[in-house]
Amino acid sequence: MTAPWMGDACGLVDAFRAKELSPLEALEACIEAIGNSPLNAFSHTDFDQARRAAKAADPGRPFGGVPFGVKELEAVKGWPYTEASLLFRDRIADHDDTSVSRLRATGAVLAAQTTSSEFGGINCTSTALHGTTRNPWDPARTPGGSSGGAAAAVAGGLLPIATGSDGGGSIRIPAAFSGLFGLKATYGRIPTGPAAGMSSLTSVRGVLTRSVRDSARRACGPR
Fold first, then answer.
1. How many CA atoms lie within 13 A of 102 on its CB side?
2. Going from the N-terminus, what domains does the chain have, and what CATH number goes with each?
3. pLDDT tens across 35-76, in order?
4. Active-site residue, selected from the candidate residues 99, 116, 147, 170
5. pTM for the complete prediction?
6. 43, 117, 126, 146: which is the annotated catalytic residue?
7. Residue 146 annotated in active site
8. Which of 22, 29, 43, 152 shows the greatest Cβ crowding within 10 Å of its Cβ?
């Protein structure tokens, strides 16, 4: 079995393009690592669909073939849309958020849903619905929040990149707690639709990454 990719997502795309590794091989390594992990970084996995996407992946796209985690506060069609709350434990998303549909357009392989604090309300990741997510550097400590599952997954070698969101530090705090790069970008740089109504003007979408260039590619790719 191929070892999990420990470089950044841009480097993984380069490896795909050089035919040093296939998207399916990279995904299978992630799946094995996730299965062996004690970090509790995921609230849902979709490996069968991810395998189909990896087989059809186009490495010519910005994130072509890269396995991604998606924070559970973002809607992914057919996945649970609980917002980490017991209140919505049975809710299933009937659409992709615009941020997710445009992520698909970059060639990303959506593999798993990462844990969050309930409604993204606090800066640690522990809920009645999913339990406590652990910091890969010290499992007795939190990876922060609310994008704690994303940080644990990327820092723990389970996925090369994962989405997050940040209103009061929910990307930046997990990045700092986990040794990753995390940027709160300009509001709307990564859209939050499809609903057009008013929402918090302090909360933005983004990613937890192992490099600045990964975050830049996410912000500058199909938006």
1. 20
2. 9-220 (3.90.1300.10)
3. 999 999 999 999 999 999 999 999 999 999 999 999 999 999
4. 170
5. 0.95
6. 146
7. yes
8. 152
